[in-house]
């Protein structure tokens, strides 16, 4: 049966938990997308930091199609070669000794929090169950992870929430010190708060959390779902800081658009998750393993990682020049290709409007709350695509300024 699809069908058929753009993308190549009407967009959104290598990258398409022609799925009663190769690649490239694969960042964080409680339960007893997270964090949408995320707007409608989760102020070590004690089993933190406004942690803050966790025998969990897989110019952001976590979660860019997540940890902590303690039907399937392996082939190279730093410079220099004309932003911040533009006070609450105007001009951008315009493009976006996309974004900014002053 052939049916004609329009944007209005979303409002008719789908659970209204999203408010998608008025256009429907149908084809992509690199950092360009085209909608049903053939209009072209430069993609600075990257599927929310997912499309690490843009759209329809030939090496990822090849890895997927070759594995699809072999077999797709067996369930966790069997293992497979692609996921074992992927595990070895990740362990060799990081601090970790053990990997667990799932389908999303939320699932990876769920596994990390369960691991922390299981380890504390086994080694210290049930009283050691406290979790310290941070205000304005985002760790996923499961009940456990949305409770750890310090944004009540995402959790308050689903009470009662899992207990013994408390929230300190991000980048405020004194605030964290007040909450972390001998009953704390884990501290979970984003090296850069993504949804919370693209706020990088300070080195002193992360070092202080490491010391507090060591002192109180708590696991330090780095949520690198958004910052991982080359996004910051290193394979994982912890490598910038010289602070090694006990557990790291990764997803988004790991599959370059194919759903996969992972939790990485050491032998010391991983051994408590014995047979039956956790699992997932689809996690670590051969399709995801093959695609993620191809992503790492490209991303985990000095050429790609250094290229991210070069692209950061191109983007921030051009955004700064744009801001010198329009005076929209009070700050442009971030690492690598995760960049947040904080709106000036007089434009508070306008990030969504600016993003919508950008789309009408043919540039896709993200927001991080009501006051931050976020850029998370493909790690291999070209200089020409950056220049073209920012010219379109500049036209949107000009229209916004004209509209707000009229």
TrEMBL record:
Q: Tell me which InterPro entries the record gives.
A: Ac/SucOrn_transaminase_bac (IPR017652), AcOrn/SuccOrn_fam (IPR004636), Aminotrans_3 (IPR005814), Aminotrans_3_PPA_site (IPR049704), Class-III_PLP-dep_AT (IPR050103), PyrdxlP-dep_Trfase (IPR015424), PyrdxlP-dep_Trfase_major (IPR015421), PyrdxlP-dep_Trfase_small (IPR015422)
- Molecular function as annotated in GO: identical protein binding; N2-acetyl-L-ornithine:2-oxoglutarate 5-aminotransferase activity; pyridoxal phosphate binding; succinyldiaminopimelate transaminase activity
Q: Where in the cell is it found?
A: Cytoplasm
Cofactor stoichiometry and binding? Answer: Binds 1 pyridoxal phosphate per subunit.
- The EC number(s) attached to this protein equal 2.6.1.11, 2.6.1.17
| Keywords assigned | Amino-acid biosynthesis, Aminotransferase, Arginine biosynthesis, Cytoplasm, Lysine biosynthesis, Pyridoxal phosphate, Transferase
Q: NAD: is it a keyword of this entry?
A: no
As for what it does, the entry says: Involved in both the arginine and lysine biosynthetic pathways.
Q: What is this protein called?
A: Acetylornithine/succinyldiaminopimelate aminotransferase
Q: What is the lineage of its organism?
A: Bacteria, Pseudomonadati, Pseudomonadota, Gammaproteobacteria, Enterobacterales
Its gene is argD
């Amino acid at each position: 049966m052939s049916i004609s699809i329009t944007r209005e069908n979303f409002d008719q058929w789908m659970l209204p938990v999203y408010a998608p753009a008025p256009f429907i993308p149908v084809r992509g190549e690199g950092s360009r997308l085209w909608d049903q009407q053939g209009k072209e967009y430069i993609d600075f959104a990257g599927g929310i930091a997912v499309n690490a290598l843009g759209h329809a990258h030939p090496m990822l398409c090849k890895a997927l199609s070759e594995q699809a022609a072999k077999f797709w799925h067996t369930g966790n009663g069997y293992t497979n070669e692609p996921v074992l190769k992927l595990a070895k690649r990740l362990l060799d490239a990081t601090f970790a000794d053990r990997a667990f694969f799932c389908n999303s960042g939320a699932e990876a964080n769920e596994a990390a929090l369960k691991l922390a409680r299981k380890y504390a339960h086994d080694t210290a007893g049930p009283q050691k169950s406290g979790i310290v997270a941070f205000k304005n964090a985002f760790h996923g949408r499961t009940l456990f992870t949305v409770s750890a995320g310090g944004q009540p707007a995402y959790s308050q409608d689903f009470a009662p929430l899992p207990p013994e989760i408390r929230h300190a102020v991000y980048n405020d070590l004194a605030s964290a010190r007040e909450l972390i004690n001998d009953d704390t089993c884990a501290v979970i933190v984003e090296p850069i708060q993504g949804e919370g406004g693209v706020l990088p942690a300070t080195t002193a803050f992360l070092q202080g959390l490491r010391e507090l966790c060591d002192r109180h025998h708590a696991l330090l969990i780095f949520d690198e779902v958004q910052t991982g897989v080359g996004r910051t110019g290193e394979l994982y952001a912890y490598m910038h800081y010289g602070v090694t976590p006990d557990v790291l979660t990764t997803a988004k860019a790991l599959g370059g658009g194919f759903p996969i997540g992972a939790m990485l940890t050491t032998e010391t902590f991983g051994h408590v998750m014995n047979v039956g303690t956790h699992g997932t039907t689809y996690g670590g399937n051969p399709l995801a393993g093959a695609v993620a392996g191809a992503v790492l082939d490209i991303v985990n190279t000095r050429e790609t990682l250094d290229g991210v730093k070069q692209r950061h410079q191109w983007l921030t220099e051009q955004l700064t020049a744009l801001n010198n004309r329009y005076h929209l932003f009070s700050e442009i911040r971030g690492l690598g290709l995760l960049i947040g533009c904080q709106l000036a006070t007089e434009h508070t609450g306008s990030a969504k409007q600016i993003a919508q105007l950008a789309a009408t001009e043919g540039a896709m951008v993200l927001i991080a709350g009501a006051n931050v315009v976020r850029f998370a493009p493909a790690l291999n976006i070209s200089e020409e695509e950056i220049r073209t996309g920012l010219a379109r974004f500049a036209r949107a900014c000009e229209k916004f300024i004209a509209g707000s002053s009229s």
